[in-house]
């Protein structure tokens, strides 16, 4: 048991680490088994932005079997990966841990760790999947939440009104750009449900046999650079992801000047407008695609209005805007932690008076 002088000294050291950015921000991350995932890229982008601006962010994983993110390329290799089982990191009072909703089952184990605790909600539909029934995040000391959309924030505040919710959308990389060479008769298809993926392609060829020369390019399982190169060659993107909360693929397509045909997800994204060909009925997608491709073959282009809407949609998701947002939010979390620790010193001093 520490005496009061030792307690105060420990708290002063914690403030010192916060001031010198020696405190660690841990991002708990799941192993994708080398499958590209926008949710994991989002985590790595936050960690990289923080590290590039003087903070100390690390990826926290379960054990050394973690396969990493070779699909993201070398840019992210500078981020340190720490294993819970093998490295046994000591999470200090002044550190921060960010836990995705995917890992809600570990919240109870983190209850007694005295650090800044932040939930990361990337998939609104998964909030309750592993969270103990009837529990609140605050029960485990998680009073702050980062999510990706206004719609998701609104929902979180309805269910957890005591939470302080910040929005950090995914970064839409600058490697997405319009093609400088003629586009090809390719449809970029991105479907979470592989049954729907197969059905759309089969149905298209049966309904439009005259368009059998059109090729569907499966945008799943590509590394990040191949993905952006492959996307810009396509004439149109086809997107179905009912569970998506944000949806990076349509914005990556728009940034590549590729029009989007899509099924509106269960949670309507903030960016949705007249910036694509949208339907709430999966059964209509093939006919929308067929009509679009026949018009394209006749030389009919998208209207200037839709092209303008695509460009306008991307403005809030400028890389520098998002990076500044990341720094502002984590700077605020750091300052609040300093205030709380300073208050702790004040309370100990009052007790000794």
Question: Which key features would you list for this structure?
Answer:
single chain; 353 residues; alpha/beta; Rossmann fold; seven-stranded parallel sheet; five-stranded parallel sheet; 10 helices; 12 strands; 16% strand; elongated
List the helices and strands and how they pair.
Elements: H1 4-19, E1 24-28, H2 38-51, E2 56-61, E3 80-83, H3 84-87, E4 96-100, E5 116-121, E6 144-147, H4 150-159, E7 164-167, E8 186-191, H5 194-207, E9 215-218, H6 224-232, E10 236-240, H7 248-255, E11 260-263, E12 277-279, H8 285-297, H9 304-314, H10 319-352
Parallel strand pairs: 1-2, 1-4, 2-3, 4-5, 5-6, 6-7, 8-9, 8-10, 10-11, 11-12
Helix pairs in contact: 1-10, 5-8
Summarize the model shown.
This protein is 38% helix and 16% strand. The protein is an alpha/beta fold and 353 residues long.
Architecture overview:
- With 353 residues, this protein is α/β, with parallel strands linked by helices.
- The protein has 2 domains: 4-171 and 319-352, Glycogen Phosphorylase B (Rossmann fold, 3-Layer(aba) Sandwich); 186-316, Rossmann fold, CATH 3.40.50.2000.
- Helix content is 38%, strand content 16%.
- It contains 10 helices and 12 strands.
- The protein has helices spanning 4-19, 38-51, 84-87, 150-159, 194-207, 224-232, 248-255, 285-297, 304-314, 319-352, and strands at 24-28, 56-61, 80-83, 96-100, 116-121, 144-147, 164-167, 186-191, 215-218, 236-240, 260-263, 277-279.
- A 7-stranded parallel sheet has the order 3-2-1-4-5-6-7, with helices on both faces.
- The protein is elongated.
- The protein starts with a helix and ends with a helix.
């Amino acid at each position: 048991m520490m005496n009061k002088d030792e307690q105060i000294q420990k708290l002063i050291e914690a403030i010192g680490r916060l001031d010198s950015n020696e405190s660690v921000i841990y991002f708990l991350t799941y192993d994708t088994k080398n499958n590209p995932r926008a949710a994991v890229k989002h985590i790595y982008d936050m960690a990289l932005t923080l590290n590039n601006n003087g903070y100390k962010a690390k990826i926290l994983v379960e054990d050394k079997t973690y396969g990493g993110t070779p699909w993201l390329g070398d840019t992210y290799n500078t981020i340190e990966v720490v294993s819970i089982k093998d490295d046994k990191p000591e999470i200090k009072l002044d550190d921060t841990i960010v836990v995705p909703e995917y890992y809600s089952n570990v919240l109870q184990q983190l209850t007694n760790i005295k650090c800044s605790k932040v939930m990361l909600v990337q998939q609104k539909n998964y909030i309750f999947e592993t969270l103990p029934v009837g529990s609140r995040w605050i029960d485990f000391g998680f009073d702050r939440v980062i999510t990706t959309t206004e719609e998701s924030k609104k929902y979180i505040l309805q269910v957890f009104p005591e939470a302080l919710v910040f929005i950090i959308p995914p970064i839409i990389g600058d490697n997405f750009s319009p093609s400088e060479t003629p586009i090809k008769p390719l449809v970029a298809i991105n479907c979470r449900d592989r049954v729907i993926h197969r059905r759309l392609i089969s149905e298209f060829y049966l309904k439009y046999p005259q368009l059998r020369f059109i090729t569907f390019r499966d945008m799943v399982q590509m590394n990040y650079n191949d993905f952006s190169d492959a996307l810009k060659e396509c004439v149109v993107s086809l997107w179905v992801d009912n569970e998506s909360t944000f949806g990076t693929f349509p914005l990556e397509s728009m940034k590549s000047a590729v029009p989007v045909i899509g099924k509106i997800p269960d949670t309507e994204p903030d960016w949705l407008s007249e910036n694509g060909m949208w339907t709430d009925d999966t059964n209509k997608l093939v006919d929308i695609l067929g009509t679009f491709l026949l018009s394209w073959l006749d030389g009919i282009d998208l209207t200037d209005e839709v092209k303008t809407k695509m460009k306008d949609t991307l403005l809030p998701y400028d890389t520098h805007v998002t990076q500044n947002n990341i720094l502002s939010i984590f700077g605020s979390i750091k300052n609040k932690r300093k205030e709380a620790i300073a208050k702790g010193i004040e309370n100990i001093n009052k007790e000794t008076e």
